[in-house]
Amino acid sequence: MKYQSQAVSKLYFIAAIGLFVAQILFGLIMGLQYVIGDFLFPAIPFNVARMVHTNALIVWLLMGFMGAGYYLIPEESERELHSPLLAKLLFWVFLVAAALTVVGYLLVPYATLAAMTGNDLLPTMGREFLEQPLLTKVGIVIVALGFLFNITMTVLKGRKTAISTVLLMGLWGLAIFFLFSFYNPHNVVRDKFYWWWVVHLWVEGVWELILGSILAFVLIKVTGVDREIIEKWLYVIITLTLITGIIGTGHHYFWIGTPEYWQWWGSLFSALEPIPFFAMTVFAFNMVNRRRREHPNRAATLWALGTGVMAFLGAGVWGFLHTLAPVNFYTHGTQITAAHGHMAFYGAYVMVVITMISYAMPLMRGRAANSNKAQVIEMWAFWLMTISMVFITLFLTAAGILQVWLQRVSTSPLPFMAAQDQVTLFYWMREWSGVAFLVGLLIYIYSFFANGEDAPKAS
Amino acid sequence: MSGSFTTSAARNIFFGGTVFFFLLFLALTYQTEQALPARDNRQNLTPQVVAGKKVWETNQCIGCHTLLGEGAYFAPELGNVYVRRGGAAGGKEFIKAWIKAQPTGVPGRRQMPNFHLTDQQLDDVAEFLKYVSEINTAKWPPNIEG
User: Which terminus of chain A is less hemmed in, N or C, by CB atoms within 10 Å?
Assistant: First the structure.
């Protein structure tokens, strides 16, 4: 760690991992409700568990991005953070807001929560992933703007690099597109159309800029390859991302009341969306192969390579599987979508945040890398979580194919619940894979506490 | 990557490509807005439908169900539920009776909470689902089961 103020990111990383655990626990509850329908009913209905599961994910990834930003920006800018105090203050605001929101979800009926938190003033709640009360949404905007102010000032006063420029563009884009969460037209078609300006333009747009810059930063550090080469790759990757991903939004505009020409635009451009992810995989492996130093943190290198591969599989391959309109006609809104969502989020965003944590955390704890023992434990966690996620995805895909066949393709289509009853076996296997994932996560957390005598000191 | 392809060239292609495709996206959005009135059933967007959408949202129906294929995959598609449950011949009555009868309490089955909706709210949400079922969705879903 070169600058004292980078240490603020430790808070963000610790909270991110804590919320990650909450996300997985609620995921397991939902997985069980898929097979034992009345599990925890009425205390935690499925919709409540799902809100906690998805919202915890979003918040912990945002915490991870912010932590990454606070760590990376001073080092890239070669100066201390503009205001470490503001970073700490915003952390507590964000954490308390997130905690209160989750408590609200769990303890208060959603309609009551909406009435209590001013949803009548500006109705924004009750839309997938944007369920947060108005107050929480405003809180997110304030935290995001404070964060952006802090890191932008740092960049402006210091060295400007491609990595910090791309990261800033991604983060500013994140904040700007989130503003569409305040726009909720009465017209369902227009509501859905602009809802994707938050959801799609985040995860298949600006978030990929954040992903690319974090990955590029860690690769420079662990491989020692020339910045010039890595930054060129970064620009190529994000160019491919945005020229495919922006019009690729059209793959959500097939069946929601929008004109049919979107089937062409959406299919063609989103069919190209795997290319930037493939480029990212090639990039990661290429840089590691051309490494000019043997960095002692092998675990971080493993996470970086894993991000490339799993993002390509989850976002690229599993996205392509159902993105062409004639296929999507049958798969839209089934477990196929869930399969893709799980592996894409894990492979791209969960793994890149862990890559950053894996690289930065030892440095913040005064070592160049963790002890060999701790790294081996962390690598076990990598494999257990990653393989479990592969199986979760495969079982959901199997469930999805059966669901599509029984409910939508068969000459005598079954009603929704009758089709669900036929795929229970796969839901059970998904749940057990989820348990294995939790074990992997617990091992990951344990790796932070595993001692070893041989941890190399930070220079 | 070859020596003649510099980082600043890569950066310029990035900015140029992004601006071009974002402008194209805006143009397509404008065209879509022009085309929507003929497709999105806005002539039936009555105050009751607007109220029904709010009932839909404030009870977080999307947390279990899909609506035009978007949402959670725990419970049936509701974009066409009005048609599936009888349309003009009792679709709304079915929807209202169903919501009122929840939860079923059958052991081991997926349960829908009782949201304690008033008769007015039940009418509103049923009218909302009728309105959604009349949106032109390019013939999706493939069949009545959603």
Answer: C
pLDDT of res. B4: 81
Quote ipTM for the complex. Answer: 0.97
Q: Does A79 touch chain B (CB under 8 A)?
A: no
Task: Give the closest residue to A253 by CA, choosing from A181, A201, A186, A183.
Answer: A201
Secondary structure of chain B in HEC code, one letter for each residue: CCCCCCHHHHHHHHHHHHHHHHHHHHHHHHHHHHHHHHCCCHHHCCHHHHHHHHHHHHCCHHHCCEECCEECCCCCECCCHHHHCCCCCCHHHHHHHHHHHCCCCCCCCCCCCCCCCCHHHHHHHHHHHHHHHCCCCCCCCCCCCC
Q: Are strands B70-71 and B66-67 parallel, antiparallel or unpaired?
A: antiparallel
In this model, does residue A266 exceed pLDDT 60? yes
pLDDT tens digits for B24-61? 999 999 999 999 999 999 999 999 999 999 999 999 99
3-state secondary structure of A64: helix
CB contact under 8 A, A45 and B59: no
Angle between helices A162-178 and A227-248 (to 10 degrees): 20
Which residue carries 């493993």 as its tokens? A302
CA of A45, closest CA in chain B: separation in Å?
A: 7
Output the CA torsion A209→A214→A216→A219 (10° steps). Answer: -160
Note the pLDDT tens digit of each residue in A174-220. Answer: 999 999 999 999 999 999 999 999 999 999 999 999 999 999 999 99
Residues B102-136 as b/e (b if ≥16 CB within 10 A, e otherwise) read ebeeeeeebbbbebebeeebbbbbbbbbbbbbebb
**Helical H segments across A290-346, by residue range:** 298-311, 318-321, 325-331, 335-344
103-132 in chain B: CB under 8 A from chain A: 103, 105-111, 113, 115, 131-132
Mutate to test the interface with B, among A34, A38, A226, A331 (most CBs of B within 10 A): A38
Distance CA B78, CA B75 (A): 9
- Tell me if B17 and A186 make a contact (CB, 8 A cut-off): no
Q: Looking at residues A284-302, what average pLDDT do you find? A: 97
Q: Which of B106, B140, B143 to mutate to test the interface with A (most CBs of A within 10 A)?
A: B140
Q: Which residues of A298-335 are buried (b: 16+ CB within 10 A; e: fewer)?
A: bbbbbbbbbbbbbbbbbbbbbbbbbbbbeebbbbbbbb
Scanning B59-88 for CB atoms below 8 A from A yields: 59-64, 66-77
pLDDT value of position A454: 73
Pull the structure tokens for residue B48.
């009751």
